Amino acid sequence: MTDNVDFIADIDVPQVADAEVAALVRAEVEYRWPNGVSGLDEVVRYGLVPFGKMMGPWLVIRSSLAVGGDLAPALPAAVALECVQVGAMMHDDIIDRDGERRSKTAAHTVFGEPTAIVGGDGLFFHGFAALSECEEAGAPAARVARALAVLSRAGLRIGSAALQEIRMSRSVCSVETYLDMIRDKSGALLWMACGVGATLGGADDTAFNALSRYSDQLGIAYQIRDDLMAYDGTRAGKPNVSDVRNGRPTLPVLLAHERAPREQQRRIERLLADTASSVEERYEAMSELVNAFDGVQAAREVSHRHVRSAEEALECLPPTEHRNALAELTVPGRLV
Predict the structure, then answer these.
(1) Left if phi > 0, otherwise alpha if psi is -120 to 50, otherwise beta: which for 55?
(2) What pTM, to 2 d.p., does this model score?
């Protein structure tokens, strides 16, 4: 995710979680990791609190309810998703050398990189432990086992895509290659939540596959929105220079590259490869090129195509308030 994804109250993107879901998950986290905890739990709490948009927990619960499941068995899974996704973000911040997350100092800057790595690992295992509690909350053991398999497979998809993203750095790739990568990075991040929720709710193959398509398409659009934050003036909760500093060829950059004459294409390629010039200088130059060749608008149009595909995928689900809530995320301006 790169996050994708990582997905705060003081930014321009609306809060995704509704008040009821947010209150339930926040109460559960505060109960498990109260203020004043120490050791590993201190690092875990630092990553979780203050809360972000809690998109993962929200998707777990809504997906479960959309296929006929109950709230109680899905609640520990919602906590599990928040733990796993925050753990991944804690590690991503170290890889990307980002000093800010959710508009506060990143964990590795506060505690040091070794402690933040261990804290991210701790969040993963807290997530597995929370998911195992779904049986006690009323989910059949077979569903819990399948949900664990979904969580694991999604994590492997995300890891493979993250490695591909690292190897793509400092050079230009095709738009198709980039979209394939973010489908597995950010799409799988959302599929982890939708798939776990649908499995715990007892989804049949049709509903499960529909939510898989929905989450993949929404995840692509979500990542594109994240890409755009560096160039459209939106405050992202982390440094806008991060992608340029790391030489990441995001979609606005790749689309501007496609539209630019050869001389300006070479400038974009040199900026991605550059590690000597100041980050601010590289970012300013890249921003000028992206805006000069319509990279922002072109990327926004691609994002909107994918949210339309996500909305269409939901048509296989029975019409309920929960399907409608999932569809709300496909409205341009709501999430992307």
Answers:
(1) alpha
(2) 0.89
Is 29:51 a contact under the CB 8 Å cutoff?
yes
Q: In Å, how far are 71, 148, 212, 236, 246 from 154, measured between CA atoms?
A: 22, 10, 11, 25, 25
- CB count within 10 Å of CB 206 equals 11
- Three-state SS at 101: strand
pLDDT in tens, 194-240: 999 999 999 999 999 999 999 999 999 999 999 999 998 776 556 78
Alpha carbon distance 149, 156 (integer Å): 11
The beta strands (E) that lie in the chain are given as: 100-101, 104-105
Taking the CB of residue 172, how many other CB atoms lie within 10 A of it? 17
Q: Which pLDDT tens digit goes with each residue over 149-188?
A: 999 999 999 999 999 999 999 999 999 999 999 999 999 9
d(CA 155, CA 192): 8
* DSSP for residue 15: P
Judge contact between 191 and 310, C-beta under 8 A. Answer: no
Residues 292 and 267: their CA atoms lie apart, in Å, by 13
